[in-house]
Each structure stands twice: as C-alpha cells, then as structure tokens.
Amino acid sequence: MICIKGSTIVDGISREPYIGDILIDNKTIVKIGQDIDIDPRDVTLIDGKGLHVFPGLIDMHCHLREPGYEYKEDIESGTKSAAAGGFTGIAPMANTNPPIDNAGMVNFIKKRARESGVVKIFPIATVTKQMKGEEITEIGELSRAGAVALSDDGLPIENAQVMRLALQYSQMFNIRIISHCEDFNLVDEGVMNEGYMSTILGLKGINRAAEELGIARDIIMAKTFNAPIHIAHVSTKDGVEMIRQAKAEGVAVTCETTPHHFSATDKWVSSYDTNTKVNPPLRTSDDVLAIKEGLRDGTIDAIATDHAPHHMDEKNVEYDIAEFGISGFETAFSLGYTNLVKEGVLSLSQLVDKMSTTPAKILNVGGGKLEEGSIADITIADLQARYIVDIDKFYSKGKNNPFHGREVSGKVLYTIVDGNIVYNNGKIIKNRI
Ligand code: DOR
User: Which residue out of 306, 377, 392, 418 is catalytically annotated?
Assistant: First the structure.
C-alpha cells in the first residue's frame, strides 16, 4: 500500500484543488480523504505536503522509434523518459520501420511494452498500408488487437477518398483518426516557418498554408461524413480559428498542440540551433498568442508532446539537412506549468485536463481521473521547484531539445503506474510494470 499524505489533489476542471490523502492498494486508489488513518508498518508513505497530485499524464502523440530506429529511441528508453516527464501512459505513433499497419505489429508493440516498458503504451496504428496513402488498413483487426487510434503520422492522407473510407470504417470501431495536416507540394523542402525570420536567416520557409489547407480539408471531411477527426499538432493562428468555427458549428473535430508551439517562436531559429527544427515549424509570436487563446477557450482540447527523438548525428548538421523533431517528454509538464499556468493562460486543473483527462477520453483508454476505485496512475509534482533543463540528464536517447539551459518551474517528483512508483525524483526505480 502507498499513502500520499497531505498533498493538494487536482482532479478535474469542475472541482477546485483540495488538500487530502490518497491511499493506494495494489493497482487501485482505495480511499481519498482527510487524515486517512494508516499503520506506517503496512504502508509506503509519501509526504505530499507542499506537493500537487494529479491523474497520471497521458501523451496522445509521441514517437518511440521501435522497431527500426532503436538508435534514436527504443521502448525502454522512451518509456523511462516518459516516466521522468510524469507520463503514466503514452500513445506512440506508427511511423516505425516497419510501420504498425497490421495486428501482428500491434501485438509486437504490446509484447515489447510488457518486456521493457516502464509506463503504459497505447499503440497507434496506421491509416493506410505501409503508410502509402493508398489502401486503408484492416481497422477492425487493428482495433481488436489494441490499437487506440489511427494515423499515418508525418504523412498526410492526401487522397480524400481514402480518408473518407478511413473515417467511415473507423467510426464502426469507435477509433479516432489523428490527422497530420500538411500539403507536401507547398512545403517544397522548406525547413522553418516562412516569413520575416526565414528571409533574414536565408532558410527556405514552409508557408503556413501547408498546414491550414490540410486542416480546412479535414474539417470539411469531418462535417460532410459526420465523422470525428483529431488534428495533430496545430501551430497556426488561422488553423486555431478554423477549428474554433468548426466546433461552433458542431463539427466533430478535436485537436492538440505541443509544448514547443506555445513556448517558442521562429525567432529561436536565429541561433541556427537544429533542435529548433520541428514539423510543423515554430511559428511567430502572433501564432503563439493564438495557440494560448485556443487552449484557454477550449478550442484546443489536448497538449501532446510529439516527442520525436533523433540521433546527435542527425541534428549536428546544417539546418537544411537536419531531421525535424524535438525530444519532448522530459520538458512537457514544466513548459505547460511555466508558460501556461504561471502566465495565467490555464489553471493547473485545466493543464492537467489537457495533458491527462481529455487525451484519455479521446483515445478511450481509461485513466485521467483521481477517484476512489480508479486505477492508481498518478503524477506528483513540486510546483515551487525551479530548475535548469539539462539534456544530459534526459532518460531519452534523443537529446534534441531547444529548451536546454533554460530555467523552468514545476518539477515532476513521482510517477506512479498501476500503483507502482516507477519514477522518484530523478530516478527510475522500477524497470518493469
Ligand atoms: O518534427 C516532427 N518529427 N514532426 C513530425 O510530424 C514527425 C516527427 C518525427 O517522426 O520525427
């Protein structure tokens, strides 16, 4: 048994945080209350005074690179990194090699998760076979095997008829399509946001319309075929506005943004630090303001890391040829706390909702709440703590993070998965769940 004593409990947006104790027995939260009576001989005590406890964070969009690119990350290193970031469950994208496009591959991920995972893995499978955008996968089989969503992440589904079929079949199995919105013709080998900064820096820009065309198309698809669709990593002002209007009309569209898209702008590229190279690219300060407003008013439902670890050799090159991506598990919560909660954009409860409760609902995976009887997936943070981001302390193999050296607030201290403490103040203390 574990008892978390005297901490501030953050559970849901409909309730103010309150101080109390949480008693965990086995995998379950058995009691939440004031001054729960315990026998210290039977219980592992966590002194929660001054700390905040919330439902375990759930990342609905990340990359673990196994199978195929284990030199960048694997399920063991990726889930350790996730645990260090306070995530108790993560949904890795299917753009592995081979991709997760059949039930056998979903089973492979589940097996590897059992063997070497530290946190829960909710596999995402592809929308199309081999991610070629031509023929949809066996959605029923994938769903039965345990895929929680479908996405050709990194690749848009360009053929609208293929997307239509995918939307219609996915509805039959109550599984969400996550769409990567990007018009490749318009990207045309761009490497950063197209605008003033790309002109000054002499780098080829990616016009924002590349993302917005995809969002517009997918809103029309969701509306026409009356099927839910989730838009990945929204980064532009007009993208947020289109989604806001679609929601107002009752279109079943949900979306996420990432910590880097509300924490950094294209000005950061002026250092030519390839760790700022990410897709969609870092945008302008106007876009960041719009993203924050979208988070505040509920247009943006979730925050997902898009954790995209790469090897040093793929980043230690000229900006033009570096890989796109940020290794983001271990800075996500602190960036959310520092740049959203401390800035008054979101309350802590709203941040937790966007990093736990809502992703759990969209993926339909359970979790995301702290109630008697619910699974003991729990994150504990010290919000007073300030620290300097240090990539050398990352558990991820990917050290590609542009926030290295910056001070942030709000530190994850404990990650508890199925009632086991898997991360405790810098240390992974249990390797298997
Ligand atoms: O920056 C990115 N990296 N964006 C994506 O959409 C894919 C990801 C990756 O797989 O590296």
Answer: 306
pLDDT in tens, the chain (433 residues): 999 999 999 998 888 999 999 999 999 999 999 989 888 888 999 999 999 999 999 999 999 999 999 999 999 999 999 999 999 999 999 999 999 999 999 999 999 999 999 999 999 999 999 999 999 999 999 999 999 999 999 999 999 999 999 999 999 999 999 999 999 999 999 999 999 999 999 999 999 999 999 999 999 999 999 999 999 999 999 999 999 999 999 999 999 999 999 999 999 999 999 999 999 999 999 999 999 999 999 999 999 999 999 999 999 999 999 999 999 999 999 999 999 999 999 999 999 999 999 999 999 999 999 999 999 999 999 999 999 999 999 999 999 999 999 999 999 999 999 999 999 999 998 755 5
How many angstroms is it from 372 CA to the middle of ligand 1? 38
Can you give the pTM of this predicted structure? 0.98
Active site residue 266: no
Ligand 1, pocket residues at CB < 6 Å: 63, 95, 153-154, 180, 278-279, 306, 308, 324-325
Whether 13 and 158 share a structural domain: no
How remote is the CA of residue 63 from the centroid of ligand 1, in Å? 8
Start-end of H helices in 325-370? 329-336, 348-352, 358-363
Closest ligand 1 atom to residue 323 Cα is: 11
C-alpha R_g of the chain: 21
Task: Confirm whether 433 is domain-assigned.
Answer: no
Give the residue whose CA is nearest to atom 1 of ligand 1.
325
Measured from the Cα of 309, ligand 1's closest atom is 11
Quick one: CA dihedral 334, 339, 343, 345, positive or negative?
negative
Minimal CA–CA distance to 260: which of 273, 243, 247? 273
Inside any domain, residue 281 = yes
Distance CA 132, CA 352 (A): 36
**Domain's final residue, options 363, 394, 417:** 363
Phi, psi of 192 (to 5 degrees): -150, 175
Ligand 1 atom nearest the C-alpha of 153 is 6
C-alpha 402 to ligand 1 mean position (Å): 15
Number of domains in the chain: 2
CATH code, domain with 397: 2.30.40.10
Domain hosting 14: range is 2-53+374-428
- Same domain membership, residue 72 and residue 115: yes
Mutate to test the pocket of ligand 1, among 69, 235, 274, 324 (most ligand atoms within 8 A of CB): 324
- How far, in whole angstroms, is CA 23 from its chain's centroid? 28
In a domain, 368, yes or no: no
What's the distance, Cα to Cα, between the start and end of the chain in Å? 16
251 and 343 share one domain: yes
Ligand 1 pocket mutation pick from 60, 63, 131, 235 by most atoms within 8 angstroms of CB:
63
The Cα 93–Cα 103 span in angstroms is 15
| Same domain as 347, residue 378 | no
